[in-house]
């Protein structure tokens, strides 16, 4: 995720200060890792340095001064360009799950590798159940449903891969330990 671009996107609707940006991020991207305030302000500083946002004034609401930021024309162009660019499919396997399975097959005996794959598949299945409950809960927002759909699709793909790998574990183990 590009924090810079997310903040530019949140500023597209109008001026906001750092606290509002953090809150909007955490609300609009409900399943994403929450932003830390320090990350928001550091990113705003870089965006301002690069001419993508400018200070839109300060206000004080029962606390310290808060600087609001707004997009510049250059910032809006950067956001538009980023949104128009197609994300390339991942060229490498960077999943901790894949790495752990591959290493388990290198160092573990056949039964230990199978046990790990089965345990991981159970964990994925349980998480799918939890997310399905979130998706169907009456209080779920559209942002929740869209985010959960994304996570469910990825967990489902992982689960299918785990099951397929489980059927191949003996062959893979023989290949690694001839």
Q: What is the fold's blueprint, element by element?
A:
Elements: H1 3-11, E1 16-17, H2 18-28, H3 37-49, E2 53-60, E3 65-71, H4 73-84, H5 96-107, H6 110-136, H7 142-176
Helix pairs in contact: 2-3, 6-7
Summarize the structure.
By secondary structure, this protein is mainly α. The chain is built from seven helices and three strands; from the N terminus they run αβααββαααα. The radius of gyration is 22 Å and the shape is elongated.
Which tags fit this structure?
178 residues, mainly alpha, 3-stranded antiparallel β-sheet, elongated
Q: Quote the distance from N terminus to C terminus.
A: 42 Å
- Unreliable stretches (pLDDT < 50, length at least 5) are none
Mean pLDDT: 86
Binned strand content: 5-15%
Give the fraction of residues assigned to helices.
55-70%
Mind explaining what this structure looks like?
The chain is mainly alpha-helical and 178 residues long. Helix content is 67%, strand content 10%. The protein has a 3-stranded antiparallel β-sheet. The two termini are 42 Å apart.
């Amino acid at each position: 995720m590009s924090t810079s671009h997310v903040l530019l996107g949140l500023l597209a609707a109008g001026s906001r200060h750092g606290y509002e940006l953090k809150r909007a991020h955490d609300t609009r991207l409900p399943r994403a890792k929450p932003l830390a305030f320090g990350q928001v302000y550091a990113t705003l500083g870089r965006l301002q340095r690069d001419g993508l946002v400018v200070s839109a004034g300060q206000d004080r609401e029962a606390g310290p001064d808060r600087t609001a930021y707004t997009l510049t024309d250059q910032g809006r162009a950067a956001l538009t360009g980023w949104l128009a660019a197609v994300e390339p499919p991942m060229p490498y396997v960077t999943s901790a799950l894949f790495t752990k399975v591959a290493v388990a097959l290198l160092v573990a005996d056949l039964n230990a590798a199978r046990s790990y794959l089965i345990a991981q598949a159970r964990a994925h299945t349980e998480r799918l159940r939890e997310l399905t409950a979130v998706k169907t809960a009456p209080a779920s927002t559209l942002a929740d449903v869209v985010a959960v759909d994304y996570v469910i699709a990825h967990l489902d793909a992982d689960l299918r891969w785990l099951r397929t790998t489980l059927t191949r574990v003996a062959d893979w183990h023989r290949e690694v330990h001839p």
